[in-house]
User: Fold this.
Amino acid sequence: MVQAISTFSWNLLFSKSHPPISPLSRFNLHHHNKFQTFVHMISTGVQCKAVEFPIPAAEAEVGNKKERMSQFAIENLTTWLLEQEQAGNIDAELTVVLSSISLACKQIASLLQRSSIINLTGGQGTINIQGEDQKKLDVVSNELFCNCLRSSGRTGIIASEEEDVPVAVEETFSGNYIVVFDPIDGSANIDTALTTGSIFGIYGPDEQCLLDIDDTSTLDVAREKCIINVCQPGRNLLVAGYCLYSSSIVFTISIGKGVFAFTLDPTFGEFVLTHENIRIPESGRIYSFNEGNYDLWDDKLKKYLEHLRQPGPNGKPYSGRYIGCLVGEIHRMLLRGGIYGNPNNKNSKNGNLRLLDECAPMSFLVEQAGGSAIDGVQRILDIKPEQVHQRTPIFIGSPDEVQKLQKYLA
Assistant:
């Protein structure tokens, strides 16, 4: 910090003669008077000296930090992953797997934006293992995910919603991570250009599930081991995340140390950190249920929904929102709070959503953000799947809202 005091003479020469100033310019006259005053101060010997005052350590640290940070400084997904690797939160192999998943999401986002133009809307004419009609982009997106994971060389097993059984990856150089994913969540929204998403979860490598591709005699046994090892409870997840395809493309991820969201900047094709350490609100006055199934639900659940429709302390009931895409519902909930439910009913005794590649990864994310996720009785992350495509009811959201639901279901 520098301050001027009168102790030292400046040896500067200024001419006392000045050119005439036009009377038509008040601005010039004003600055001319200031200049005369300054020259007068110099010519009369006003003495100046630069004196250094001590700067508090806290101010100095803040100042140095501001100098280091540019107003254009951004942190992209690649940089963030490398920082997590350096901090020991993930290893190099997992960094490669996550980078390959982000690449698949960028490719899917591009296809979705051009789907009507390149004739990728409508059905494929095939049915998946769950008996659901496949959209064209269901099939294409599944291939994109599989190819990106295979090319990473760090993935041992792939379990997709669109595949009958888990697939062992032969193109593996090091690392044998198990990746479960739903390539397109909410694919019914594609033809109307509404919200869709991709969901993924990553489990640790399992040495008991390595296939010798050349030895076909052990293939069936090894495949059984793969299925067994894929069917792990959600609490074993190392990483979970989703990519939201909407007005923005948002890649949200948790490596078990909070939840972070990165928004795709289309100007240079990078995911940029926009939401750091997301915390879900303790409560929220938004509920999301497909109330078209209301008459098929349990009476206890009906009473809970009737409660939500009643005016609260502010004179307003809860707001009902339903997107038809789990990714969209969870993304809104992480930022605004509330509760999402996909319960069992008379026609779907085990619910509609898959435990392994939808409910478990989303429950992991929400719990990392401070929320809760249950099936109505127990914690979703404690359920061990018995089948790859096992379904489960789910209630997920702000902790206060889930606790309130539990009282009605008890």
